[in-house]
Specification:
The complex is a heterodimer of chains A (325) and B (349). Chain A has 325 residues and is mainly alpha-helical. Chain A has twelve helices and two strands, in the order αββααααααααααα. Chain A has a two-stranded antiparallel sheet with strand order 1-2. In chain A, helix 4 packs across helix 7, helix 7 packs across helix 9 and helix 9 packs antiparallel against helix 12. By secondary structure, chain B is of the alpha+beta class. In chain B, strands 2, 3, 4, 5, 6 and 7 form a six-stranded antiparallel β-sheet that branches. Chain B has a two-stranded antiparallel sheet with strand order 1-8. Chain B is elongated and about 100 Å long. The model of chain B has no long low-confidence stretch (mean pLDDT 83). Classes of the chains: A mainly alpha (325), B alpha+beta (349). At the A-B interface, helix 1, helix 3, helix 4, helix 5 and helix 6 of A face helix 2, helix 5, helix 6, helix 7 and helix 11 of B.
């Protein structure tokens, strides 16, 4: 504690000087300066540079040494000889990554929201030890993506416990992670396993904010539990559901870490998603194509902006609907 | 039975409805799905390399007992042999060719017996391979990875708390020109996922000479918009009269910040500290592109590169994974309530 006090006292003269020079009116700038500086250098400036990268070619890292190529990077990404067949595209992995990501997001978000809602509804009942159960579902959220992937990789490996169970029942063992379909299934399952608790928590908070007397009124009217759920609970939970839906979608589109460790994007490109494509083109392959990676991330950004706008639209429509009611 | 009656008891005098049973079934299934994989990992990490190679795998770390028999250099594995007359005998196996095994009685090492391998059962004993964990520190530069992870987590969290609270203080307790713009600017960065500015962030870190330096992972992460938002909302509830009183006593603004506002914001700071520790300890993508040298790896990167090797040494990898998930599990066990309420109220992760 004394060390902390000593450190804070060290900064005192600087701020006294600042206070004298700037005056109380502008001292606020001094306090936000460190935070703003970091945000500027590591977030705002990069946004601008990203556009520079996307419109220049070559393999140099320094923007000044790169040649301006206009929209060529985007052309390379999106060009196909025949748009009905992915394998004729110049960057077929990019297209595959897009399709994989879309497929993954739709399935994962739908299942995730369903199970999160189900779990939240169960946790919202009068049950013993709610804190414990809530904690159980939340625990995997805290684990790092790498750890999550390794836990499941260990279970799913050739001599793992899943195959041991299959063999115990006289079934054929399955190569869970080196066949396209099972691998895709497990990326969906593992990402739901790891993140469901977070969305459950948001929905649970929403459920607990619904006034009790509404349920009492429904019970007075002898509404069936199903009807109460459809007519009272779900409509009132709608704002939270929209938040969960959009948050889950934004995260699902950016899926990378768990899958990268679990399957490495394989087999082939069966579980290669868009962020992994960006990482590989920009950093992992022999020639670092920064321009192409930046162009792909701009495309991703545009998509995410659209999603966020959709969220704003939805929530606003919802608020207006609430006022109208 | 008392456990069952305890579990089946409901609040008040309400009788147990079939939907309650269904709920508890669902929750119990949830416990298995959520915890069993982690438990299996922890149990596996306590197995020796030989025990891990056994198929089918067992839950507890069993290894075969062995014994030193005079006349043999290596300890011999012990078997329980069913002799032809139906008796069981404990014997050590000297060699095995095809389906015939040669065994000796440890008490009488001279007489060798040949039996069919179906007649012998290995004798197993519980053996926790704590060496997996010890070897990590002796054989690998594991200590370095651990240190890197701890350093990044601690320093980044300290800086996050300092920078974010300073900004939050200015945004909640002062009125200055451009204040709203600054606040919106900080909040707007929430909208920008780190994945889409990967390339330019790499350039910036490279240009300031922080590539392969732990600071290259720390600095970009310390200005969290979530933290500023969380702290600002909390500081708004601190009455301005307290600050005015301190000003009357000629306290400098810096002193007001760290002597009055910071201690009063302790609950919000605690929530942010928990989040920050979680974020930084689990970080993967940024360290992956910034730290490429083995000696600057964090635990997460070490795990990743270790599992990618051709001959994955699972007994070490599992132990390493357990050490990586241990701190988070401890934090969770003790601070579960703070974390869950913090997330429910702020809606952040």
């Amino acid at each position: 504690m004394t060390l902390l006090a000593f450190l804070f006292n060290l900064l005192e003269p600087a701020f006294r000087l600042g206070q004298r020079l700037l005056g109380l009116k502008r001292l606020g700038w001094l306090f936000v300066a460190p935070n703003l500086l970091v945000i500027g250098v590591f977030c705002l400036v990069p946004i601008v540079i990203n556009v520079l990268y996307a419109t220049t070619g070559g393999v140099n890292l320094l923007p000044s040494q790169r040649t301006f190529t206009g929209l060529e990077n985007f052309q390379i990404l999106f060009e196909c000889r025949d748009y009905s067949d992915i394998s004729t595209c110049r960057k077929d992995v990019f297209w595959r990554a897009i399709f994989n990501t879309l497929q993954f997001s739709v399935i994962q978000v739908a299942l995730m929201v369903f199970f999160a809602l189900l779990t939240a509804l169960v946790l919202n009942r009068k049950i013993i030890g709610r804190g414990f159960w809530r904690g159980v579902f939340f625990y995997p959220v805290l684990l790092s993506p790498v750890v999550v992937a390794l836990i499941w990789k260990w279970l799913l490996q050739r001599n793992g416990v899943f195959n041991a169970t299959l063999i115990a029942f006289d079934w054929q063992p399955i190569e869970w992670l080196t066949q396209a379909r099972p691998a895709f299934f497990w990326t969906v399952f593992v990402s739901i396993w790891a993140h469901m608790g977070f969305y459950t928590l948001i929905l649970l908070a929403g459920l607990q904010a619904i006034p009790r007397d509404l349920y009492e009124a429904a019970a007075m009217d002898r509404a069936s539990p199903w009807r109460t759920l459809m007519r009272v609970t779900l409509p009132l939970l709608m704002p939270n559901l929209v938040v969960v839906l959009v948050l889950a979608a934004i995260r699902a589109i950016q899926i990378f870490d768990e899958v990268f460790v679990l399957t490495g994007g394989g087999p082939g490109s069966a579980t290669t998603f868009i962020v992994q494509f960006i990482y590989q083109t920009g950093f992992a392959e022999q020639i670092h194509l920064y321009g192409l990676a930046a162009a792909a991330s701009l495309a991703l950004a545009a998509f995410l902006v659209l999603l966020t706008l959709a969220q704003l639209r939805l929530t606003r429509a919802d608020e207006m609907g609430a006022k109208g009611r | 039975m008392s456990v069952m009656t305890f579990l089946l008891r409901t609040r008040g005098t309400r009788r147990l409805h079939w939907t309650d049973v269904l709920c508890y079934l669902y929750l119990s299934l949830g416990v298995v799905v959520m915890f069993a994989p982690v438990l299996w990992l922890v149990m596996s990490s306590l197995k020796s390399e030989a025990a891990l190679a056994q198929f089918p795998p067992t839950f507890l770390p069993y290894t075969q007992k062995s014994i030193i028999v005079p006349g043999n250099d290596k300890p011999l594995p012990l078997f329980s042999v069913t002799t032809d007359d139906g008796q069981h005998k404990v014997m050590a196996q000297v060699s095995r060719i095809g389906i015939m095994a040669t065994l000796v009685d440890p008490a009488a090492p001279e007489t060798r017996v040949k039996v069919n391998i179906n007649q012998r059962e290995p004798i197993n004993e519980l053996n926790f391979a704590w060496n997996n964990f010890k070897d990590l520190f002796d054989k690998f530069t594991f200590g370095t990875y651990l240190w890197n992870s701890v350093f990044i987590t601690v320093v980044a969290t300290a800086l996050t708390l300092l920078f974010n609270s300073m900004a939050a203080f200015a945004l909640s307790k002062y009125q200055f020109k451009g204040q709203k713009t600054v606040f919106l600017l900080i909040i707007a960065t929430l909208m920008i996922p780190p994945t889409i500015i990967l390339v330019p962030v790499f350039l910036v870190i490279n240009q300031v000479g922080l590539l392969n330096s732990l600071w290259g992972v720390i600095l970009p992460a310390v200005a969290t918009p979530t933290g500023v938002f969380l702290l600002r909302q909390y500081m708004l509830t601190i009455p301005d009269e307290l600050l005015e009183a301190a000003r009357m006593d000629h306290a400098s603004e810096w002193r007001i910040y760290w002597r009055i506002v910071l201690p009063l914001s302790a609950p919000a700071l605690a929530v942010l500290a928990i989040f920050s520790v979680m974020w930084r300890w689990n970080d993967f993508l940024l360290p992956l592109i910034v730290l490429s040298k083995n000696e600057s790896f964090t635990l997460q990167l070490a795990l990743n590169s270790f599992q990618g090797e051709l001959n994955t040494q699972w007994h070490y990898l599992l132990a390493m994974t357990v050490i990586t998930l241990l701190p988070i599990t401890l934090v969770f066990a003790f601070l579960q309530r703070h974390i869950t309420t913090g997330i429910a109220s702020a809606g952040v992760k």
